[in-house]
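Lab notebook, bench 4. Still working through the backlog of constructs that have no structural model yet. Next entry is a single chain of 185 residues. Request: give me the C-alpha cells for it.
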Amino acid sequence: MDAFLSSTLAVAIAEIGDKTQLLTLFLAARFTQRNAIILGILVATLLNHALSAWFGAWLVQWIPENWAPWIIGLSFIAVGLWVLIPDKDDDDETGVLQYGAFIATCILFFIAEMGDKTQVATVILAARYDNLFWVIMGTTVGMMLANVPVAYAGNWLMQKIPLDLARWSACILFVGLGVLSIVAI
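Model written out:
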C-alpha cells in the first residue's frame, strides 16, 4: 500500500501546473464532452504509466543492488528539483482535434506525457517499489486527481491554486522520497 500512496501523492502534487494539466484545460475549452476527455486521460495515463512502470522495474534489475538505492534516491531528488521549473504550453497538435474529444485526448495526452516529470516519476517509483500494479494505480489516480477537476472547473480552479506552493510541495515530497530511499540502505 506504500507504493500506492506514495505514487498517488507524488503524481497528484507534481501534476499541478504541469503541461498535461494545461492540455486538459485546453481540451476542456475546445470540447464540451467532459466525460470523454476524462476517459481519454484515464486510457492514455494507464497505457503510458504501465509502460513506464514496466521499464522502471526492468531497469532496476540491471543495476547493481548496492547502487540501486543511490540511483533511485538521487533520481527522486532530481525530479524534485525539476518540478520547480514551470512547464510551458507546447504548440497545440490541432490535427488530431478533428477526431473528437476521446481520441484527441488519448493521443495528445499520451504524447504530452512522453518524457514528462510524471512519466519519469513513474519509472523511478516502479524501480523503488516491488509492486508494479500499485505504482501504476497510484500514478494513475494521482493524475486523475489533478486533471479531473481541471476538466470540469478549469479556469476558475487554475486561478485559485497557488502554483508556486504546489511546485514547492512536490519538490519537498520528491526530495523526501529520495532521502528516504538513500537512508533505507
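Notes after review: Helices lie at 2-15, 19-30, 34-61, 68-83, 101-113, 117-128, 132-160, 163-183. Residues 2-183 form one domain. Flag for follow-up if needed.
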